[in-house]
Write a structure and sequence with these properties.
The complex is a heterodimer of chains A (about 375) and B (about 400). Chain A has about 375 residues and is an alpha/beta fold. Chain A is built from 12 helices and 14 strands. Chain B is globular, with a radius of gyration of 23 Å.
């Protein structure tokens, strides 16, 4: 229980600053004469050894954000800074070098592996491309990484991806991502194509590898229960914008944005007694071609007011480490600073019967 | 009334025989002949569904749940399939029907919602036409009547401005909207049983909640029976009346929903529940993964099929196959030699007696954690047994 949360020790010589900083990231796509506003001004940072969860519905821009972090998708504006280097300002040659340190794991494990190549060649490729090590050294590293992800190198090395299940393919792509000794892993929906039982295996594996190799992670997913399990902090995204950022236990205990609350309510809990609520979110994500004025969530918000259509709520602090972009944030009846005490109790009912939108200015601290 | 296809018209009495069930599946076996051998995907499954009820069928990929659903429907490949057993639906044996007779049943009395609405819908036909097709065939509606009904159906499944959308093609709709169209098609002729095979897998959680609520609402209004096939126990927890857990082609536990969750007997069911991340747990809580993978269905293990992955496995489990049986309550069936009682295994630990002292219980619980950690290692052996994944 503790090994997943424990931060890897800071290696000497690494400063305490954030590993990754994203500042006012904007990504737009041209679609004929129209513009798709995929990411519209997203700002966050990830500390060393931290896992930041990025959660939201399909089409909210979370994957585009993930791709912009590694500059696979070049941002329209804004800066992505990795250990002090602005990635957008680098030459493609410099960028390639930096990218060895930032690796990505994708959603569909089967299609992200070349079906015609052998597992050991797939995993060795990052080193081959960079010409690192001798053939023997590379083979040794492949063995080491395959073993680290729980794949038997002798049995699996000469097989091809088609011979493995989805969970095993995901393990292989994780091994490949780790070959170039990255320190930042961007996981884009790594478990959403997997069964719950396999999902648990992969999530545990990621937690183990994070501790073992001292990784920092950005974990992108649509399932808040999964994100909460792996993340230290969670950023909730809606239609290209961050609507709430908080420590994951805080976010669950005192979700302040109506959208976060709706997401929490939508999760099917495997308990027949907690299903009485259920009134989730109505409607669908508006088109990113023409996002709503003011607060982008207003078209689906149950607490919408006139001001929501007129003014865009900025992302502001409502508690230490807890930011929300809402004119009328929901305030939990009690904010428990000390974790684990009543967490389980509160956990039984994510609807928080007492939660109400409190109009007007947000108090400095909402506990008490 | 004669129908297209020329087959003899079937009668479906409004109420099945007194005491009868709407659907009665008995000892259903479905196997596929492949180059590597015979895959026994469904291996002796029996259950019943009553009118207006919801049955959840839960299992991992490869547990045979989708083949079971298709086998009941009669939607199987024409070649290299061996099916035995009977499926009685409203008094008729579906397994004995000719294709022409089945066509009278499909859509009209018994319909199916498929997992992937993009491939299940015809990409080159307007959605309106796809809904009216069965209305005109089964209910003999004329064009304008069918169109009006289709618009009404689209409205019922929550599609805005249905008068316009009826002329749209599937690609113009989002995944959630397509699944709503699938539901509209499935419900068009007011069937008495809907088979929903992973109807919300691949959809966002918010949309999933909407779709499941919609299905439940329509079910209540129409007094339909629903079979909800899923890998996610969370999906069926609040929605099914009864749940059937499948493993390696067989039912391993079957009970009313509340009983299944609160008095789980089968270690596999417990393991499935434990592998789900819970919102209530603090961040970083280690998940209880199930070690290994489901067995090869060409050469299933001797004895209990879950034995190789079971944290409480005993010699007896490896040697003889536990039958599906009851203990105490007659509607709670399970296939385990050493069922869990109040979450604790009745398996003797290291030769201790079945009435295990607390120390042995703790040791058994310890095994679970070891097992989940070992998952990383045991998975490695799988390429040998798994073979090509289709």
């Amino acid at each position: 229980m503790t090994d997943a949360t424990a931060r890897a020790p800071m290696p000497p010589g690494v400063d305490d600053g954030p590993v990754l900083t994203v500042d006012d990231l904007v990504v737009e796509f041209k679609s004929g004469r129209q513009t798709v506003h995929a990411v519209s001004g997203v700002t966050f940072s990830v500390k060393y050894g931290e896992t930041l969860g990025l959660v939201g519905e399909s089409g909210c821009g979370k994957s585009t954000t993930g791709r912009a972090l590694v500059q696979v998708q070049s941002p329209t504006s804004g800066a992505v800074t990795y250990r002090g280097q602005n990635l957008s300002a680098l030459s493609s040659r410099q960028l390639r070098r930096v990218r060895t340190k930032i690796q990505m794991i994708f959603q569909d494990p089967i299609s992200s592996l070349n079906p015609r190549r052998r597992v050991r060649d797939i995993v060795a490729e990052p080193l081959v491309i960079w010409g690192r090590g001798s053939k023997e050294e590379r083979a040794a590293k492949v063995r080491e990484m395959l073993e680290a992800v729980g794949i038997d190198p002798d049995a699996a090395g000469d097989r091809r991806p088609g011979e493995f299940s989805g969970g095993q393919c995901q393990r292989i792509s994780i091994a490949r991502a780790l070959m170039a000794d990255p320190d930042l892993l961007i996981c884009d929906e790594p478990v959403s194509a997997l069964d719950v039982s396999v999902q648990a295996q992969i999530l545990n594996l990621l937690a183990d590898l994070k501790a073992k190799f001292g990784l920092t992670m950005v974990f992108i997913a649509h399932d808040l229960a999964v994100v909460k399990n792996v993340s230290d902090r969670v950023a909730v995204m809606y239609l290209g914008k961050l609507v709430e950022v908080a420590d994951s236990d805080d976010l669950y205990r005192s979700a302040s944005h109506p959208y976060t609350e709706a997401l929490l309510r939508s999760i099917p809990e495997p308990d027949p007694d907690t299903q009485a609520h259920s009134k989730g979110l109505s409607g669908e994500l508006p088109s990113p071609l023409n996002p709503p004025s003011g607060c982008r969530f207003r078209t689906r918000c149950p607490y919408v007011q006139d001001v929501c259509a007129e003014q865009e709520p900025p992302l502001r602090d409502i508690a230490p480490g807890h930011q929300v972009a809402c004119h009328f944030p929901l305030v939990a009846p009690v904010l428990v600073p000390d974790q684990g005490e009543v967490g389980g109790e509160v956990g039984q009912d994510p609807t928080r019967a007492g939660s109400m939108p409190i109009p007007g200015p947000v108090p400095e601290s909402s506990d008490g | 009334m004669l129908r297209r296809g020329g087959a003899q018209t079937l009668e479906f009495p409004d109420v099945a025989a007194p005491g009868g069930h709407l659907l009665e599946v008995e000892d259903l076996h479905t196997a596929f002949r492949t180059g590597r051998g015979t895959v026994r995907a469904v291996d002796g499954v029996s259950f019943t569904v009553d009118r207006g009820k919801t049955l959840g069928i839960v299992g991992e990929s490869g547990s045979g749940k989708t083949v079971l659903a298709r086998s009941i429907m009669g939607l199987l490949p024409l070649h290299d399939v061996i099916r035995s057993g009977t499926v009685h639906f409203a008094g008729h044996d579906l397994t004995a029907m000719e294709p022409a007779q089945l066509r009278q049943v499909w859509g009209a009395e018994l319909s199916m919602i498929f997992q992937d609405p993009m491939t299940a819908l015809n990409p080159v036909k307007r959605i309106g036409r796809q809904i009216t097709e069965s209305l005109r065939l089964h209910l003999r509606m004329d064009r304008s009547e069918a169109n009006a009904t289709a618009i009404e159906l689209l409205r019922q499944v929550g599609i805005p401005s249905p008068e316009e959308r009826i002329r749209w093609y599937p690609f113009q709709l989002s995944g959630g909207m397509r699944q709503r169209v699938m539901i509209a098609i499935a419900l068009a002729c007011a069937p008495r049983l809907v088979m929903a095979d992973e109807p919300t897998t691949g959809l966002d959680v918010t949309v999933q909640a909407q779709i499941l609520d919609l299905l439940a609402e329509l079910q209540r209004e129409r007094h339909m029976a629903v079979i909800l096939v899923t890998h996610d126990l969370g999906v069926v927890a609040g929605r099914a009346d009864e749940i059937l857990v499948m493993y390696a082609g067989r039912i391993v536990e079957r009970a009313p929903t509340h009983t299944l969750f609160h008095d789980t007997h089968m270690p596999y069911t417990q393991a499935l529940m434990d592998s789900i991340p819970r919102l209530a747990d603090p961040s970083g809580t280690r998940l209880h993964a199930i070690a290994g993978r489901p067995p090869d269905l060409i050469h299933p293990p001797k004895g209990c099929r879950f034995a190789p992955r079971c944290p409480y496995v005993q010699d007896r489990c490896r040697e003889s196959d536990p039958p599906l049986r009851t203990a105490g309550s007659p509607d709670h069936l399970f296939a385990c030699w050493f069922p869990l009682v109040n979450g604790v295994s009745t398996a003797p630990s290291n030769g201790a007696l079945p009435s295990a002292p607390p120390a042995a219980v703790a040791a058994a619980a310890e095994d679970v954690t070891n097992g989940s950690d070992a998952s990383v290692g045991t998975d490695t052996a799988a390429p040998d047994t798994g073979g090509p994944t289709p």
